[in-house]
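Progress note, project year one: complex with calcium ion.
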Amino acid sequence: MRVLVVEDEIDIARALSQALEEDGYAVDVARDGESGLFAASACDYAAAVLDLMLPKRDGLGVLRELRRLGRTIPVLILTAKDTLRDKVAGLDTGADDYLAKPFQIEELLARVRALIRRSSGQASPLIQIGDVEIDTVAAVVRKEGRAIDLAPKEYALIDLLARNRGKLISRGVIYNHIYDDNDETFSNVVDVYVSNLRRKLGKDFISTRRGQGYMIDV
Ligand code: CA
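Model obtained:
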């Protein structure tokens, strides 16, 4: 899954993107409000972490414009001070959650997971598909109760397909979700991951729509 971080403080941006990547997300970082707004409008992110104090356009301005454009991307705002006014303004402008600085990275990761889960209509962190169980908190897949050894990108792919069960997902969308802007691989690696997953989870687990994409059937 792909997540956007809009944060101008280099150290925080770096720590955030590193922690999110370790949690299995592809991460893009925007360093000011204008480029954050551009990225969030152009790409289909699973969630955004948005700082309020930003150069060029502040976080509330970015959020207001995204909602005006009808973008439903889940947004967690970072407030510099834990003031009631900041929190209320953020939530009233369309934020889904907030965290005051300084924050613990573990809490931020948990909140991002919860946002993504809720936005995909998935209240429980466990997704059960036949004898396969996907634990979206631990990022572990089990088949018949046994943990399956998956590469991080294989997990990212199964997670995307499982959350969108019954929907056809194109190679392009898959590619955007599992790679960030810094990756320079070719999109046929998606087919390689799909064939690895079929080998590990059963050949009928993921179906192919020729020339269109992949899906997990309901
Ligand atoms: Ca800032």
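The two ends are 21 Å apart (CA to CA).
Residues 8-9, 51, 53-54 surround calcium ion (CB under 6 Å).
No further modelling is planned for this target in the current period.
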